[in-house]
Design a protein that fits this description.
285 residues; alpha/beta; three-stranded antiparallel β-sheet
Length: 285
């Protein structure tokens, strides 16, 4: 921490120089600097009457200090994440549907743990798993990486939900471009589904809504919307709606559960429950 204080004060002053302004702070800092020099057995500063500056030794010390401080912070973050993982299972998902079931399954399997969840972007989830932020993540693609267990969880398929009066309501299946340019209500907090919809239908005006407002729009308007097979099984189909499968490859997703066994959270019971042997499916070397 001596390095961190010195580094901050010098850089804030500009040119690694500190002007003596506050006597109490300066004296305390001076003593810290002297102790540091004594510990290293070298002089780190050129001292003048009202100013102290780093010499070449000090410049090198500050460079090393930056690395040490970074490693110390990383150590603290990793230890905290490890401790949190012993008490909490934080699940990160790319979409809402997997969390509907997985959170309850984990709560039943690990009643002594607190189960928490959130949705984030795919890359953020993977980096968070590597760094120990998440104990379990769900992605829409498999990952083959040393130290990571990856097992198939399930599938989800996107549908258009159309009113009977819509010109395409008689279609057996559609590509997303068929409705590009229309106005569509869209649930918020959809994870990767939102990005995919905006990318595949760039001319569509999406009206993002909370769940209650979204359901009312679907029920009382003729606007087309999205649903999925998982949502239909869970919530049923709205009245006066025709659900048409979407043919785009990105609209038909297989989910994968990933964890890092070496991180200290034993999820073997969970992986056995979804049909994945956590030992056999691990890519640990």
């Amino acid at each position: 921490m001596h390095f961190e204080v010195s580094q901050q004060h010098f850089r804030n002053a500009g040119g690694f120089g500190v002007v003596v302004a506050l006597a109490g702070v300066q004296h305390a800092l001076s003593r810290s600097m002297q102790r540091l020099e004594t510990a290293l057995q070298v002089s780190l500063f050129d001292r003048q009457k009202n100013k102290i500056e780093l010499n070449d030794n000090g410049q090198m010390a500050v460079e090393y200090a930056g690395r040490i401080v970074g490693e110390a912070r990383d150590m603290a973050a990793r230890i905290q994440a490890f401790d949190r993982g012993r008490r909490t299972i934080l699940v990160g998902s790319c979409a809402p549907a997997p969390l509907w079931e997985i959170s309850q399954v984990l709560a039943d399997l690990y009643p002594e743990r607190t189960i928490a969840s959130e949705m984030r972007e795919n890359q953020v989830l993977l980096e968070g798993l590597r760094d120990g932020v998440y104990q379990l993540i769900i992605l829409p693609y498999p990952v083959e990486e040393a130290g990571i267990t990856c097992a198939k969880y399930g599938e989800e398929h996107l549908f258009f939900s159309l009113s009977p009066a819509h010109p395409l309501s008689g279609s057996k299946a559609l590509y997303m471009k068929a409705l590009n340019g229309e106005t569509m209500p869209l649930r918020n907090r959809l994870g990767f589904w939102r990005e995919m919809a905006v990318r595949k239908m760039p001319d569509t005006r999406f009206l993002e809504q909370e769940d209650v407002a979204f359901n009312e729009l679907v029920q009382f308007s003729a606007l087309p919307s999205f649903t999925t097979d998982v949502a239909l099984r869970r919530e049923g189909s709205p009245k006066n709606r025709i659900n048409i499968p979407i043919l785009d490859g990105e609209a038909n997703v297989t989910y994968y559960c990933l964890c890092r066994p070496a991180a200290g959270t034993d999820l073997r019971s969970f992986f056995r429950g979804i049909g994945g042997d956590s030992d056999a499916s691990s890519n640990a070397k």
